[in-house]
From TrEMBL:
This is Chromosomal replication initiator protein DnaA. Residues 367-487 are annotated as: Domain IV, binds dsDNA. Oligomerizes as a right-handed, spiral filament on DNA at oriC. Residues 1-81 are annotated as: Domain I, interacts with DnaA modulators. Domain I is involved in oligomerization and binding regulators, domain II is flexibile and of varying length in different bacteria, domain III forms the AAA+ region, while domain IV binds dsDNA. Gene3D superfamilies: 1.10.1750.10, 1.10.8.60, 3.30.300.180, P-loop containing nucleotide triphosphate hydrolases (3.40.50.300). It comes from Roseibium algicola.
Length: 487
């Protein structure tokens, strides 16, 4: 059986590669990044996921595709069995408590000594409530408690720099309860840049002042709140919603499906009847969040939209200093020489989470071997995290902006169905550049260009390839646009 399982792991690696090619990086990362192969027995493959939400979503949307890919590896496979890893904690009842009197239940995770990122179950609320509320009061308690907070994620431990100063200032203002300036804030950035840290810091700060706060993930909203809104608990939930002073919704990119988006939009309207302030976060801008309905996207864009850029050297160095200082409070003998800190800040650039991972590795080596942290140790231990001389990741929206400016057209025109010659050529060029400069799949590029079919993108790519080979002036123009995107 062990040999079979090892073979199954190799097969799973190949299946994942095919899935990534077919679905694109974003969709694959969202839904399959945390799927693990457990065993292959008989005609079945058993995979595990961290939450019931992921289990249900994959079963409903990708089960046939998974079976088809596995059959290429092993012809007798006919079934995919999905299980949820780990046991859910039992829910504590709060029957009889009014919404304002319900205190937040928190489940503490076990992060590393430098970690400012909660474990999945704790940060996304999936281990807090294993089933729907058994009473109206309990449903209200579930909503008000939401996901648990990591006590390490505060404003004091957040490293502020040029890339995130605007977002940090806006979140601080809303956490302090300043009404009339910002009512709805939407923060977007790539993974691991600090969105969750800011939202949890705001929740902790607002609760200190006695404000009623609800911190939810999009998964929590879809899997717990939406079903509860259709039960007799709705009147009590409505009252609980109106008692909220600050609502925080994290990982909005996981809000999938028209029904969930419609319910979320209705909930926002309900909350806006009161003086509620709302902060939301996602891994992309609202116009690039394909799963949002038009009404919800419009409501978000009426608020304040703030992007957090990738960290620069100064900010990464500041993050490291804060994490090292925090570690030395409990481990005074631990130290990181300045040249090592400089090396990490310069070359571990993917995300703040990678910075923390780098320090966790050095810390673990120091504690286990009692050897000091040196440059030689850092180079050997962190080689897979170091990014020396790698080109930065190009986003489709960056390409669209450059092309729109160059051809004097709007992004709305570029994404529209208009077939005017003045728009068709820029649109095809933008699709071509997106294909050659990003790792996006044809279907994903099509979605970013007004939900076009992948065959449309393929036609555009082949068309521009052919024209560039014959038209020197066009070839130079396309090269210029590529350089502008890289700039």
């Amino acid at each position: 059986m062990q040999v079979q399982n090892l073979a199954g792991s190799d097969q799973w690696d190949r299946v994942k590669k095919e899935l990534r090619n077919e679905l694109g990086d974003d969709v694959f990362s969202n839904w399959f990044g945390r799927v693990k192969h457990e065993e292959t027995t008989g005609d079945a493959v058993r995979l595990s996921v961290p939450t019931r939400f992921l289990k249900n979503w994959i079963q409903n949307n990708y089960e046939k595709q998974l079976v088809g890919l596995w059959k290429r590896e092993q012809d007798d496979i006919n079934r995919i069995e999905l299980t949820v890893r780990g046991a859910l904690r039992p829910r504590q009842l709060n029957v009889g408590l009014a919404p304002k009197a319900i205190s937040a239940r928190r489940i503490s995770g076990r992060p590393g000594p430098f970690s400012s990122t909660p474990q999945f179950g704790a940060s996304h609320g999936m281990s807090v409530i294993p089933c729907l509320a058994d009473s109206n009061e309990d449903a209200a308690a579930d909503f008000l408690n939401g996901a648990s907070l990591n006590p390490k994620l505060t404003f004091d431990t957040f490293a502020e720099g040029a890339s995130n100063s605007l977002a940090c200032a806006a979140v601080r203002q809303m956490a302090a309860g300043h009404q009339g300036t910002l009512d709805l804030l939407y923060i977007h950035s790539s993974t691991g840049i600090g969105k969750t840290h800011l939202l949890q810091a705001a929740a902790a700060e607002a609760r200190k002042t006695g404000r009623q706060v609800a911190y939810l993930s999009a998964e929590f909203f879809m899997y717990h709140l939406v079903p509860a809104l259709r039960t007799p608990a709705f009147p009590v939930l409505r009252q609980a919603m109106r008692s909220i002073d600050l609502l925080l919704v994290d990982d909005l990119q996981f809000l999938h499906g028209k029904q969930a988006a419609d319910e979320f939009s209705k909930t926002l309207e309900l909350l806006m009847e009161s003086p509620t302030q709302i902060i939301m976060a996602a891994d992309r801008s609202p116009e690039d969040l394909d799963t949002l309905g038009d009404a919800l996207r419009y409501r978000i864009q009426k608020g304040e939209v703030v992007g957090i850029q990738s960290t620069d050297y100064a900010l990464r160095h500041d993050i490291l200093k804060k994490r090292i200082t925090a570690a030395r409070r409990t481990h005074p003998g631990f130290s990181v020489p300045e040249d090592v800190a400089d090396y990490i800040a310069r070359y571990v650039i993917a995300s703040a989470r990678d910075l923390e991972g780098a320090l966790n590795r050095l810390f673990a080596h120091n504690q286990l071997t009692k050897q000091p942290v040196t440059m030689d140790l850092a180079e050997k231990t962190l080689h897979d995290l170091v990014r020396i001389g790698e080109p930065r990741s190009i986003k489709v929206e960056e390409i669209q902006q450059v092309v729109c400016k160059h051809f004097s057209v709007t992004k709305a025109d570029l994404l529209s169905s208009c077939r005017a010659r003045t728009l068709v050529r820029p649109r095809q060029i933008a699709m071509y550049i997106a294909k050659v400069m990003t790792g996006r799949s044809l279907p994903e590029i099509g979605r970013r260009f007004g939900n076009r079919d992948h065959t449309t993108v393929l036609h555009a790519v082949r068309k521009i390839e052919d024209m560039v080979s014959k038209d020197k002036a066009l070839a130079q123009e396309v090269e210029l646009l590529k350089r502008l995107v890289h700039a």
